[in-house]
Amino acid sequence: ARSEALTAFLGERTTAGYRSETRTATQAIIVRRRRYPFLLGRLRTRDDHRLVVSVDSDCAITTVVAEPRRW
Predict the structure, then answer these.
(1) How far apart are CA 51 and CA 58, in angstroms?
(2) Rounded to an integer, what distance in angstroms lies between the CA atom of residue 10 and that of residue 16?
(3) Average pLDDT per 10 consecutive residues for the chain, totaling 71 residues
Protein backbone atom coordinates (compact mmCIF):
# COMPACT_ATOMS: atom_id res chain seq x y z
CA ALA A 1 0.00 0.00 0.00
CA ARG A 2 2.87 2.40 0.78
CA SER A 3 4.43 1.90 -2.63
CA GLU A 4 1.11 2.54 -4.36
CA ALA A 5 0.59 5.74 -2.35
CA LEU A 6 4.06 6.95 -3.34
CA THR A 7 3.46 6.05 -6.98
CA ALA A 8 0.19 8.02 -7.02
CA PHE A 9 1.83 11.07 -5.40
CA LEU A 10 4.76 10.97 -7.82
CA GLY A 11 2.32 10.80 -10.71
CA GLU A 12 0.68 14.02 -9.51
CA ARG A 13 4.05 15.72 -9.07
CA THR A 14 5.16 14.63 -12.55
CA THR A 15 2.24 16.48 -14.09
CA ALA A 16 3.21 19.50 -11.95
CA GLY A 17 6.67 19.61 -13.55
CA TYR A 18 8.79 17.40 -11.29
CA ARG A 19 10.92 14.42 -12.25
CA SER A 20 12.07 11.58 -10.04
CA GLU A 21 15.79 11.67 -9.26
CA THR A 22 15.87 8.51 -7.15
CA ARG A 23 13.30 6.22 -5.58
CA THR A 24 12.86 3.33 -3.16
CA ALA A 25 9.61 1.65 -2.06
CA THR A 26 8.96 4.26 0.64
CA GLN A 27 11.01 7.34 -0.34
CA ALA A 28 11.88 9.39 -3.38
CA ILE A 29 13.80 12.52 -4.25
CA ILE A 30 12.08 14.66 -6.84
CA VAL A 31 13.40 17.69 -8.70
CA ARG A 32 11.46 20.44 -10.45
CA ARG A 33 12.27 20.54 -14.13
CA ARG A 34 13.81 23.70 -15.48
CA ARG A 35 11.99 25.80 -18.02
CA TYR A 36 14.87 26.11 -20.47
CA PRO A 37 17.19 23.14 -19.95
CA PHE A 38 18.76 23.56 -23.38
CA LEU A 39 20.24 26.89 -22.26
CA LEU A 40 21.90 25.55 -19.13
CA GLY A 41 22.80 22.05 -20.21
CA ARG A 42 23.20 19.52 -17.45
CA LEU A 43 24.69 21.92 -14.94
CA ARG A 44 22.97 21.96 -11.59
CA THR A 45 22.27 25.30 -10.04
CA ARG A 46 21.04 26.29 -6.62
CA ASP A 47 17.70 27.05 -8.30
CA ASP A 48 16.84 23.35 -8.49
CA HIS A 49 13.92 22.64 -6.20
CA ARG A 50 14.61 19.22 -4.67
CA LEU A 51 12.21 17.47 -2.30
CA VAL A 52 12.45 14.28 -0.27
CA VAL A 53 9.10 12.48 -0.38
CA SER A 54 8.39 9.83 2.27
CA VAL A 55 5.47 7.52 3.01
CA ASP A 56 4.89 6.38 6.59
CA SER A 57 3.24 3.18 7.80
CA ASP A 58 -0.21 4.85 7.63
CA CYS A 59 0.40 5.77 3.96
CA ALA A 60 0.66 9.47 4.80
CA ILE A 61 2.94 11.42 2.46
CA THR A 62 5.52 13.87 3.84
CA THR A 63 7.72 16.20 1.81
CA VAL A 64 10.83 17.95 3.09
CA VAL A 65 13.21 20.21 1.18
CA ALA A 66 16.31 18.21 0.26
CA GLU A 67 19.87 19.41 0.67
CA PRO A 68 21.46 20.78 -2.49
CA ARG A 69 23.56 18.39 -4.55
CA ARG A 70 27.23 18.72 -3.83
CA TRP A 71 28.57 17.48 -7.15
Answers:
(1) 20
(2) 10
(3) 95 93 95 69 62 96 90 69
